[in-house]
Design goal:
It contains 2 helices and 11 strands; from the N terminus they run αβββββββββββα. It has about 230 residues and is an alpha+beta fold. The strands form 3 sheets. A 5-stranded antiparallel beta sheet has the order 3-4-5-6-7, covered by helices on one side. Strands 9-8-10-11 form a 4-stranded antiparallel beta sheet, with helices on one face. Strands 1-2 form a two-stranded antiparallel ribbon.
């Protein structure tokens, strides 16, 4: 009678090596997948941030620039010369408008946009000051904020006519004129190569104004009452 011999053999060395190799491949694939997922998430977040930045800048111009007021500054020059509030060059822009009522700042405000370079980095800055001189005893802290950072190129151009006639054309400057342009084109290119489509905004152009127009009513009321005037109207 033969006695059965119970086998107690385990895994062979080759089987262990194969299992470890397969486990290593699985771990590598798992970490590679996680890395791809993380990169995709970061790229998605970056795209959302870029889109939000474009939306914020476009909303800024949509809220403030298109409602620029065609007023004259005839109180800051010692010689009594009138200066039209809207002034533009290829990289600077000055215009006057009002804040929404919810902001709590009454009266006309002057916006000045310009390209600033500091420590090799360019940015589009916005400077805000009250248009009319402050009353005695009033104080104003001049505000300046960066609208867009890491700018590679910033260009402005203006479409309109000096006389308001039909000979309108695109111009690189809008200086010493007596009316506002019909359109303003804003081109921005960032250092990271992100494409920003050109913004072309139509201004709500009305008549020209001076301080005398506001003697009997607030600036906002005067502008609202005369919105029907055409370019260059008095």
């Amino acid at each position: 009678m033969t006695k059965a011999v119970k086998s107690n053999q385990g895994f062979t060395l080759i089987e262990v090596l194969i299992a470890m190799t397969l486990l290593s491949v699985i771990v590598v694939l798992l970490f590679a997948s996680l890395k791809i997922c993380a990169q995709s998430w970061e790229q998605g977040e970056s795209k959302i941030t870029d889109v939000n930045d474009v939306a914020v800048v476009y909303n800024f111009f949509q809220q403030h620039l298109i409602s620029a007021k065609p007023v004259w500054n005839d109180f800051s020059d010692k010689d009594g010369l009138k200066i039209f509030a809207f002034q533009g060059t290829p990289q600077t822009l000055q215009f006057v408008t009002t804040f929404p009522a919810s902001v709590g700042r009454k009266g006309l405000q002057q916006f000045t946009l310009f390209l600033k370079e500091k420590e090799g980095e360019k940015s589009i800055q916005v400077e805000l000051t009250p248009f009319f001189p402050l009353a005695e005893g009033e104080q104003w802290n001049q505000e300046q904020v960066a609208l867009v950072k890491h700018v590679k190129r910033f260009e402005l151009s203006y479409f309109g006519s000096d006389t308001g006639a039909d000979d309108s054309a695109w111009q690189t400057e809008w200086l010493e004129k007596e009316n506002q342009p019909r359109l303003v084109k804003i081109s921005i290119e960032l250092e990271n190569g992100i494409f920003w489509p050109d913004m072309i905004l139509e201004l709500k152009v009305a008549g020209n104004y001076s301080n005398e127009d506001f003697d009997s009513e607030t600036p906002d009321d005067a502008l609202e009452n005369d919105d029907s005037q055409s370019i260059g109207g008095n």
